[in-house]
Please model this.
Amino acid sequence: MSTEVSSPGEDVLGWVTETAIRAGFAGVVGSDQDLLPLLQQQQQDQEGEQHAHTQLDRRNSSGPVDEEEQQQHWNRLGMLLMVSTMAALGTLGNIFAIAAVMTEDHLKKKGNVLVVNVMLAGLVVSAGVLPAWVVALLAGWSRPTPVCSASWILTTLAAHASLLTLPSLAWENSARVGGRSVGVLVLSTMVGVSWAGAIAITVSQWVTDLAPRHCGRASVTSPRAPSHTAFTSVVGVTLVALPLLVALVIHAHTLLTGRGGPRRPLPPTVKPPQALTRDLALTGTNLVVTAVAGGCWVGGLAGDWWVDDPLRTGVAWLPIVAATCSSFLYVAHKPFREAYVQLFHYCCCKTSVSLSRRGRSGEAAAAAAAAMAAAARPPSDVRVHIIQGYNMYTTASARDHRLPTHIHVKIPCRSKESRRPKHHHKKDVYEL
Model:
C-alpha cells in the first residue's frame, strides 16, 4: 500500500487558488448587487421618456382636430349672429312697410295692396325661413337639417309670388299715373293669381324632383336629368325672367312719358299737381325695388336650378337678401320714410309709457306731475293726439302766421270782445 504525501508547496498553491476563486465570486456578486439600483433607475428613466414621447405624439395628433372643431364653432357662431340679425331686420322692415301703407294718408290707396303683397312674400322668408335656420344652428344639426326641405319650399314659394306680383304692380302704377283707376276686384284677382301660380310652380318642382338640390334629394355630383333642363327652360323664361323684364319696361315707360297712358303730357311751363308728383316718385321707388329685389329673386332661382352647389358659391343667399332689403329700399320715398320714423317713435314711446304707469294710489302725484309739465311747456304749443297713448307737441307759430287760403274774402271787423287778449295758456287738442 502506497501513500501519497503532499508537499508543502502544493498545499500553499491549492489554498491560494481556492481563496482566489472565492474572492472572485464574492466580488462579482457584490458588484452585481451594487449595479442593480442603477439598472432599475435607468429602466425607469427609459419608461418615462417613452411615456413623454407618447403624450407628445397624442398632442400632436389631436391638435389639428381641436383647431378644426374650434373653427367650426366660431363659424357657427358667426352664422348664428348673421342669420339672427337678418331675421330681425327683415321682419321689422316688412312689418313697418305694411303698417306704413295702412296708416300714411298718401299711401292709403287701393293699388298699394300689391306693395303689401310683395312685403308679405318677404315676410314669409324673414319670419318663417330664417328662424328655422336659427333653430338648426342652435341645435347643431349637420347638413342636411330636418328643416331644410320646409325652409326651401317657403323660399321658392315667396320668390315666385313676388316675381308674379311685380308686373301687376308696374301696370297699376302706370294706370294710376295716367289717371285711370283699378278696381278692387281686379286687384284681388292679381293677388290671388300670383299666390296660386307660385303654389303651383313650387309644388310641381318638389313633386317631380326638380327642386333645388340643397337637402340631399339628389347628389351634387350626379348629372342632371334632361327633364330638369326642359322644365327650367320653360318655367325659368316664362314665369321668372319674363315677369321681371315686363315690370322693368312698364316702370321705365311710365317714368319717361310722365303719364304712362294715352293722355298727352303736361306742357313744360305747367307745374304738375302734387298727386302726380307723388305717384311718379312712388313709381321710381318701385322701379328700384323691382330691379334690386327682383334681380335677387331671379338670381337665387337661377342658381338653384343651374349651379351645382349654390350654398357653397353663395347664390342661395340672394333670395334671403331680397326678402330682407326690399322694405328698406322704400326709405327713398318720402311718405314711407316719414311713416317709418313715426312708427319707430311710436313704438319707443309706447314702451316707455307702459313701463311708467302708476296705480290708482298715485293719481294725485301723476296729476301734479302733469300740471308741472303743462306749466313748463311754451304757451304757443298745440297738443295733437295722433294715436291713443302717443302725444306729439308742435309749436303753433307756423299755424298763426299762415296766410289765408281765400285772399278775396273780406275779413269782418272784430268786436270789442274779440279785441280782448286771449288766454294763451289754454291748449288746443286735436284728435287725428
Remarks:
- The CA atoms of residues 282 and 333 lie 6 Å apart.
- The longest helix spans residues 8-103.
- The mean pLDDT is 74.
